[in-house]
Amino acid sequence: MGEVIFASSDLSYRYEGADSDAVSGVTLTISRGELVSVVGPNGSGKTTLLKILLGVIAPSVGGVLIKGKESSAWTRREMARLVGVVPQREEPVFPLRVRQAVMLGRYPHLGPLQAPRQTDVNAVELAMERCDVTHLGERWVATLSSGEWQRTRVARALAQDPEALVLDEPTANLDIRHEMEVFELAAQLTRDAGMAGILVTHQVNLAARFSDRVVVMDAGKAIAIGEPSEVLSVETLERVFNWPVALFSWKGVPQFVPKREAEF
């Protein structure tokens, strides 16, 4: 792997008034050229872990280095140039067309009141093409389906030309084709374009197929970190998700099928 982009050590965080840590004792590094997926049940600490890695919240224990520099030492503009983020939930605030929404990803590269340059236009068009939203360019974002809006948000993050891409449930509301295209794109950008990729997902089977490493979260702890074939087992998934599963192999990659109650 290439340069380490994110390096964290013994991260813990507890929300005010909570009885237990949302994240507890997590150590994780993510380098250029690798896609790391974070899986686990609802409430396992996946999104909180992302917020700590991005410097949105400060850990109560441990620390995060981004390219060897404390996360808190980066300005917001510097972080926006470095990391493209697609949050889990976001509603459009202003009436924008799709191309305008994607162009927002270029503002970290522009000066105050500076008009977009040809390089910015080119970056937007490439990002839209990669996310299959070019044909939606003149549509108002308020008229988009949930899946179209999700793909537009991914395109905006790509338009930033980031060194790292962070996706929190990027395939929510997408059909099978666009689920696959998002994972294919994330894998391509990390391996071919040398980006570092972090992807939070409930799609365990897609995480297994596309990720270089998987982090399995449960009750705030990273109970397993490693290659999918090493850490994704029937025992681990049944314990974490509290539901019986069956395992089969697809071209050497573990894939899982939840059992029906009659099959327990």
Low-confidence stretches: none
> If helices are DSSP runs of H or I spanning 4 or more residues, what is the number of helices?
9
Straight-line N-to-C gap? 41 Å
Overall shape = globular
Strand order of the largest sheet: 6-7-8-3-9-10
Give a quick set of tags describing it:
single chain; six-stranded mixed sheet; 9 helices; 27% strand
Walk me through the topology.
Layout: E1 4-13, E2 23-31, E3 35-39, H1 46-53, E4 61-66, E5 69-70, H2 76-82, E6 83-86, H3 98-103, H4 118-130, H5 146-159, E7 164-168, H6 176-191, E8 196-200, H7 204-210, E9 213-218, E10 221-226, H8 228-231, H9 234-241, E11 245-250, E12 253-258
Parallel strand pairs: 3-8, 3-9, 6-7, 7-8
Antiparallel strand pairs: 1-2, 1-4, 4-5, 9-10, 11-12
